[in-house]
Amino acid sequence: MRRPRRFLDTFVVLFVTSLFTTPLIAQQWSWPDKGGNLQVLPGDIDGDGLRETMMGFVNALGVDCNHCHVGSGNDLSQFDFKADDKETKKTARVMLTMVRAINDEHLAKIDRDDRLEVTCATCHHGQTRPQRIEDVLMDAYSEGEVDAVLRKYRELRARYYGGAAFDFSEPILIGLVQGLPSGKESDAIAILELNSQMYPTSYRTYHYLGELHRLLGHDKAALEAFVQSLEFNPENPVAQQRVEELKAKIPPEESEPVDPVDPGVD
């Protein structure tokens, strides 16, 4: 039985469909009553179901019709929707088969009324190739220096922040530096300094900065970082211990007052 269309589904379909229905196109092309060359979708799917499915792909992957279908531009009357020329269309069929198996063969075994269903958006979140931001940044790191990571993060944040494509929360860059190989402490510090700009009240970021500077023998920088960490989490006993150890280690004539960062700085 076909599930009822939810309000959000209907809204997405109408909104995205409107992008492809300028007066010119509306005169030249309209949704067919049934599909052609259907190998995975039900053969009896009607025009409304076909439109809902296709627009779901557009929204979930952030693509246009020509991602899978042969054609270009907005004039859909010139598209060959039945052609199997593109590998992306063949891949889509494989992915649809996988989604169907997950829902019908695996999730169906879960005995609960509020069982969830997997959709394309579950993984893609508006990306053609669904990747975690950590993987994208590590790819950038393997191809270049740490500056490539910083540039890529800023680029992704400028483009995707506020959407569901990538997770830009505070722990992401902290987790990234924990995956760096030994001997790359300076790179880790650069990445954490970026995180401190994005999240200036992140006591975890300053704590890890303190440990890295301490490991490298940067006692004054380590002390400053631990003081900043305590500013935002005074109950951290490890940071308290580190501050006492570093204060005892740094000669008084070399010690300078440390001003905590302004939490309002972005």
How are the SSEs placed, and which strands pair?
Elements: H1 7-19, H2 23-28, H3 47-61, H4 87-106, H5 120-124, H6 133-143, H7 146-160, H8 171-178, H9 185-198, H10 203-215, H11 219-232, H12 237-249
Helix pairs in contact: 1-3, 6-7, 6-8, 8-9, 9-10, 10-11, 11-12
Short account of what is shown:
The protein is mainly α and 266 residues long. It has helices spanning 7-19, 23-28, 47-61, 87-106, 120-124, 133-143, 146-160, 171-178, 185-198, 203-215, 219-232, 237-249.
Walk me through the structure.
The chain has 266 residues and is mainly α. The protein folds into 2 domains: 118 residues, no CATH class; 86 residues, Tetratricopeptide repeat domain (Serine Threonine Protein Phosphatase 5, Tetratricopeptide repeat, Alpha Horseshoe), CATH 1.25.40.10. Helix content is 55%, strand content 0%. It contains 12 helices and no strands. Helix 6 runs antiparallel to helix 7. The relative contact order is 0.06.
